[in-house]
């Protein structure tokens, strides 16, 4: 079996940044970019303009940005494999990585498989319908887009993310509705109070969106009160899912320590996982910040940590 010094799993900002740093440090990284699991580039492939990544004053399209990350990783000699990793064996070194077509050994490993925002299967919100045409799962990424300006916006969820995103959206929307399936918010008290007191936010309790309607972009939502069964139609310019994220860690069960919420447990302030020689970067180990720039930063940290660890192994 072919043995690599460093294998990186994941092709978002974390994975590619790790690859750029590792390749420049002569670690000759091999990066699995995925295939059926989603497009190379991760969550940014499903966004439009990225306007909060420093260095792009006019903004840049998410897919274009990831194409540039990928090119930069290739430029310094990263080997990219377009396949999914099906399983890993981390109980002994060298580690084993089993992909769709390949099986490789790795002296060190960086896990950067990201997370996906959860969505609900509401008619009108699916891919090919109004997804990314007013329906998104990231207010911070997409909320400032012109289509949401001075419109009534709907955030689905009742946790801290829903409240935070609703507050963020008040900068752009005419009014922001939080659509929550229960009559009490899950969000922390301080956040819940902020939402309740905000003059531009209204919470629709015990409510669900049954359908999102629009020709080319979102135009209205059909709401249902779960207690009274009353159905209501409201004008809408945007619908934002804020019902949590799922880290892509299914293939890591029983291999590396995961937190109860499924994210990889890393040493505070670093990227070291519970297994020596295995590092984690990006959203797969971060349920709080989840930004492209923080993911890229932790990808850099993981590559530096891996480099240091590998050189300590060599000189031992
Ligand atoms: P979360 O706390 O898990 O909340 C998810 C919300 O979505 C819940 O209100 C839940 O409703 C709702 N939901 C889930 N599935 C649903 C479905 N099928 N239909 C309708 N509603 C559904 O997730 P989060 O808000 O993303 O927060 C994740 C973690 O990050 C939390 O620990 C949070 O405190 C933290 N966070 C902190 C901050 C901050 O401090 N500034 C900001 C963001 C996130 P139920 O309540 O009925 O279950």
Brief digest:
With 316 residues, the protein is of the alpha/beta class.
Q: How does this structure look, described?
A:
The protein is of the alpha/beta class. The protein has two domains: 3-116 and 245-315, FAD/NAD(P)-binding domain; 119-241, FAD/NAD(P)-binding domain (3-Layer(bba) Sandwich). 23% of the residues lie in helices and 26% in strands. It has six helices and 19 strands. The strands form five sheets. Strands 1, 2, 5, 6, 7, 8 and 19 form a seven-stranded mixed β-sheet that branches. A five-stranded parallel β-sheet has the order 10-17-11-12-13. The protein has a three-stranded antiparallel β-sheet with strand order 14-15-16, with no helix packed on it. Strand 7 and strand 8 (103-111) form a beta hairpin. Helix 1 runs parallel beside helix 2, helix 1 runs parallel beside helix 6 and helix 4 (160-169) runs parallel beside helix 5. The longest helix has 24 residues, at 292-315. The chain is elongated. The protein starts with a strand and ends with a helix. The mean pLDDT is 95. It binds NADP nicotinamide-adenine-dinucleotide phosphate. NADP nicotinamide-adenine-dinucleotide phosphate (NAP) binds at residues 120, 157-162, 164, 181-182, 186, 243-244, 287.
Characteristics of this structure?
2 domains; FAD/NAD(P)-binding domain; binds NADP nicotinamide-adenine-dinucleotide phosphate; 23% helix; alpha/beta; single chain; 316 residues; elongated
